[in-house]
Amino acid sequence: MATSSPYPSMPLPFIMTDDSGRFHINKDTAQVLGRIEKPLVVVAIAGKYRTGKSFLMNRLAAEEVNPVLNRHKMHAFVTKRSEGQSSRNHTEEADEEEFADVRSMVKCWSMRVDGQFEQKQPKARSALPKPLQTREIGVSSTMSGFSLGNTVQSHTKGIWIWPVRHPRDERKCLLLLDTEGLGDVEKANEEHDIWLFVMAVLLSNILVYNTVGTLDHSGLEQLLYVKDMAQYVQARVGSRKDNPKNLDKYFPSLIICVRDFTLTLKLNGSPCTADDYMEHCFKIRKPENQRGREDENKSFNKERDIMCHYFKKRKCFMFPMPVNSEDLSKLENIPDRDLKPDFLKVANEFTSHIHQEVKYKNIDGVILTGQLFLQVAELYVAAQRSGDMVCIENTRVQVVQLANLQAVEDAKELYLRKMEVIEVQFPLKISQLHRHHEGCMDKALDLFYSHAVLDQEHKHEKELMEHMKTTFLKLGTQNKQRSQETCRIRLKKLYCLVDETYQGFMQPGGFRKYQAMMKKIEEDYYKTTGLGDEMETMYKEFLEQKKESGNAILIVDKTLTSFQQQDMEIAEYIQQVYASDQDAHG
């Protein structure tokens, strides 16, 4: 794992299109994705080209680049302070923690006498990050987040991604997908657009559909690609005749953004919400209104029925004009303070709604991290390149396999890391090593169980258990060898005095001295701690090795003692004979 942040400072090209219209994944971007270990919340945006999709995505990139949101946060905090209130748990620590969240804003804002905040800099930045450099062909050489264009040509090519820190939850990664504008006349055919739409739908758990003006047939034109999804996607292997509605559980929640909306939100003369307006546009036509237009209305109702079935969770935001029409081409460089308040209000509601999304991107319960998301994207791209259908079941199987393999590897790494802590303490009693092994094994299994998915036959669990068992046995062998080595060193050191005194044992009574010293060695040896389980075995081996030396000392001792006894007997005999002579000649 790289030590640097896994989050790039700019959007990256992800799924690109070659000259023949086939998709391919950018290898450099794939490496960036592979380093993201957090679960993903994936937001994709699709819609007709030149409708300002990239502008919305840039507002999602990071809350700290949005001066309006930060201004509200600062104002709320300062109000608490001025009223003598402490935040959260009413502790100074919590208060300071909240203040740290707005400290960086102070440099950019000041409070007027009327209590409102305004930016200090004469050139206030917009909601977009600082200009970013890129050398990718086909885009501007200087980018502010996702590239915005001001011509009639589609500016984003393929699908670009931007993984950023989730502004509301550090446990997640917010992955933004900006798709090439649909309906571009420069593209080869409509199938290219449908595949882009398929990718956006299948890769995201929130789909933002961007359109301009109203939700009439023209406004919903690209969203109606859903009716063709069953021609490109199948739920199960070998089921080309799948009921299209079997795919609905794999669909993301839908957010419709209607840009430059100038009408009054009313239905049947009464005020309505943006969601009411959307549901009205999604309603099927009643039979009594179909006279003379039965075929047309039948097609209309079928399309609405499919959209409502696929996108069960849906919401709508109606964006008024952000600036005067003559300034739209400069939207990228316009600071928030110069955008119309009504537009900012909706934009901030839109941003807040998406940032509050709690659902992770998953396939049949398999939560996707960066590496798993990349695996899924590669499978989808391979299907597009080969002209096959995307198979969700096959994707799930492969993702499950990858997720479980990764869970096994992570658990193995944790087990080894924990076992290395005690390895430096070798030699140990086998009971100590076994207790530590069981503790490490429990932690490794907990990690595995928290990340493994659908391991119904316990295949990967068994693999992990076998690995830990093998590792434990190997460490047990190393511990035994370390115990043997440590015992040998200790016995050799204790025996040094015997070696030095060896010649001193070669005399009558030397064997008793030798036994006394060996007894002292035994006492000191068994008082020694940290020798491990081989202590007894190695002492027996030591005695066996020194048996010959001890026997030699004993033989010499007995021989010399025998000679000494003979000498004493001869001397005694001579003394007796001498005494007898003295008496005889008395």
Rg, Å, rounded: 41 Å
Q: Report low-confidence residues grouped into runs of 5 or more.
A: 63-144, 148-155
Helix content: 40-55%
**Main sheet record:** 8 strands, mixed
Q: What is the top-level CATH class of the largest domain?
A: Alpha Beta
- Could you give the order of strands across the largest sheet? 2-1-8-9-3-10-12-15
Number of helices: 14
CATH homologous superfamily grouping of the largest domain = P-loop containing nucleotide triphosphate hydrolases
Specify the overall morphology: rod-shaped
Cα(first) to Cα(last) distance is: 112 Å
Examine the coordinates and then state which fold CATH places here, giving the name of the CATH topology of the largest domain: Rossmann fold
Quantity of strands, as a count: 18
Whole-number count of domains: 4
Give a nutshell description of this structure.
This protein has helices at residues 27-34, 53-61, 67-82, 92-103, 190-203, 274-282, 294-310, 341-355, 370-386, 392-423, 430-451, 459-500, 510-527, 535-584, and strands at residues 12-17, 23-25, 40-47, 109-111, 117-119, 131-133, 142-144, 159-165, 173-179, 206-212, 233-234, 253-259, 266-267, 270-271, 314-318, 362-363, 366-367, 390-391. It has 586 residues and is of the alpha/beta class.
